[in-house]
Amino acid sequence: MSTSGSTYGDIHRYEPARESTAAAIAIVLLALLEIVFVFMFSWGLVSGWALTADGNMFLGGLLAVVFIDLAFVLAIYRKEFLPDVMVVKKRRRKWEDLYVRGDQADGEQVESADVWDQVKRAVYPYYKR
Questions:
Q1: What are the pLDDT digits (tens) for 35-60?
Q2: Rounded distance, CA 34 to CA 65, Å?
Q3: Is there a contact between 66 and 41 (Cβ–Cβ < 8 Å)?
Q4: What are the angstrom distances between the C-alpha of 80 and each of 19, 32, 40, 87, 114?
Q5: What is d(CA 49, CA 32) in angstroms, rounded to the nearest whole number?
Q6: Are 81 and 19 within 8 A, CB to CB?
Q7: Contact 66, 34 (CB under 8 A)
Q8: What radius of gyration do the chain's Cα atoms show?
Q9: DSSP secondary structure letter of residue 12
Q10: Burial 14-24 (b: 16+ CB within 10 A, else e)
């Protein structure tokens, strides 16, 4: 489904997620495997496996497997259960500065009498004029 709107924030393309059962089963199995690896890592820390060189490498490997497994769970979830949405964004030219317009490049002249009012507005934003 796509729309022809070109104003900022319009949805240009929307494709619903597949939501396959195989992906849901894979996420559940990977989550259970994640729990097992986290339990093994926690048990290794409590048991003092990190006191030996080999045990320290084993705990490092378990921690790496925990994060890799988590990455697979999140990748499958993003691919299968989140819709693909393209939103119209505001396009900016590469050579323009994002915050300063050309006529404001030299800054503004500040009067010495206005300095105190500007400080008060900066410190207290709801300052009444």
A1: 999 999 999 999 999 899 999 999 99
A2: 9
A3: yes
A4: 5, 19, 29, 20, 58
A5: 23
A6: yes
A7: yes
A8: 28
A9: E
A10: eeeeeeeeebe
Q: DSSP secondary-structure letter at 86?
A: E
**Cβ(18)–Cβ(76) under 8 Å?**
no
Query: Under DSSP, is residue 89 helix (H, G, I), strand (E, B) or coil?
Result: coil
Mean pLDDT rounded to a whole number for the chain:
79
Q: Per-residue pLDDT tens for 75-114?
A: 999 999 988 877 776 665 555 545 555 565 555 666 666 7
- Which residue in 13, 10, 3 sits closest to 90, CA to CA? 10
Alpha helices in 5-125 (DSSP H): 21-47, 53-81, 112-123
Q: How many CB atoms lie within 10 A of CB 66?
A: 18
Q: Which two tokens stand for residue 89?
A: 């964004």
At residue 77, φ and ψ (nearest 5 deg) are: -60, -45
- Per-residue tokens: 44: 């290794």
| The pTM of the whole model exceeds 0.70 | no
Vertex 101: Cα angle to 98 and 107 (nearest 5): 110
**What DSSP character marks residue 7?**
S
